[in-house]
Design brief:
Ribonucleotide Reductase, subunit A, single chain, mainly alpha, 57% helix, 17 helices
Amino acid sequence: MAFFNFMITKAGTAVATIMVTASLSSVAVAFQSPHASFLTASSRANSPHAFTGTSASTSTTTSRTALKATVDTSTITNKDYQDICGVDFDNESLQKRLERTSYLYPRHVEVIEDLAPLADQMVDDILLETGDAAWQPQDYLPDLTGDDWLEGIKDLREQAAQVPDELLVVLIGDMVTEEALPTYQTLLNTFEGCDDPTGTTDSAWARWSRGWTSEENRHGDLLNKYLYLGGRCDMRSIECTIQHLITSGFNPGAEKDPYRGFVYTSFQERATKISHGNVGKIAKASGDKNLQRICAKIAGDEGRHEKAYQTFVTEILERDPNGLLAVFGDMMRGQIVMPAELMTDGKDPELYENFSEVAQRLNVYTAIDYAEIIQHLVKTWDLEHMEGLSSEGEKEREYLCKLPKRYKKLAERSMNKKKKCTDDEIPLKSFNWIYGREV
C-alpha cells in the first residue's frame, strides 16, 4: 500500500513524499515514477537512499521504505502543482478548506457565532489558569518523593478503610465516568459552530473546549490515584471498565446541534456536581476527610463549568427563545442520557444499572435530583416570565414550567416504593471492582 503526501516548501519547491509499506517477507521495494523526467539531478543522485532505507539528510529520520523526490520547478510550477493535486497545502489555504460552508442548523450556528465574545469571557472568568497556578491532583495526594511518604500512604489508607463498600462502588463509577473524558471532548467537537477543526484552532469556542477539557482531565486522574493508593479495589477490573466505556462511546442525542449540546451540558454538569458533593459528604461522615476534600474540589470545578454552560443558554434565549425552547422541550420529552450508560467491565452486562441502583440507595444521585435539576434550569432561565414567544414557543414554555412538579411527583412515588422494601428484600449485587464483594 502506498501513501502519498505532498507539501509546498517556503521556497516554492514542491516536495512529494511517497511512503511505501511492504510486508516483512518482502526483500525489496521497487518504485518507478511515470514522471521521472520531473526529478532533478540532485534527486536522482540521492535516489539510492530511498531503496536502502537511509535518509539523504542527517537531521531527518524517515521510514526505511520512504522515498523523497524534489520536483523540478522549471518543469512544474506551483500553479501546475495545484492544478494537478487540486489543493494548496499552505497553512492559510488549509485553514480555509477546513472551514464549514454549510450546516444542519444555520440559524443556531449564527447565534453561536454571535456568542463568541462571551465564550472568550468565560475562558478568562470561569476557567482557572493553566499549569502551576491551578490545582493539580498531586496537591491532594501523598508525595512519594518525600521523606514521610510512607506515613502519608498509611494515613490515606487508614482513612480510606473507613469508607463502606457501597460508597466505594459509587466512587469508582464516578471515577470511570470522569476517565471517559476523550469521549466528551469528541462530543463537544460535533457541535456545529463550536468545533476545533485543526486541534489548535484559535477561536473562542475552540479555546473554551480545550480549556474545559484540561480542567476536567484532573478529576479522573485524582480519583484514579486515590483509589489505587487506597488499596481496596481491583484496579485492573476498573481499567478494563474505562477502556470499554471509551471504546463503546456515548451518544446523548445532541445531533450536532449546539443548542442541544449546551442544554445537555447545563444539566449534566449540575448532576455531576451533586454526585461528587454527596459522595464527599458521606465520606466525611465515614471518617475519610481526604476523600471529602477531593470530592469537594472536583464538585467546585463542576459548579464553575455548570455556570458557564447555563450562561451560554441564557444568552441563546435572548437571541432565539423559540428555537431554544423547542430543543429543550424535545429533550425533556425523552430523557437525559447519563454519560456512563454503556459502562461494562466485560463481565457484568448490567454494571451501569447496578452501579446506579447503589447510588440511588445512598441518595448520592436519585430521581429526585433529576427532577430538581429540571426545576433549577427552568428557574435559572426564568421561563416563568418569558414573553413575546410564538404560539409553539409558548406551548413549550408552559410544558417545561409544569414539568418539574410532574417529575418530582413520579420520583417521590418511586422513592417511597423503594423505602417500603426492607434490606432483606433488596438483592445484593457483587462488583468485580471490589473483588466480587456484594453491596
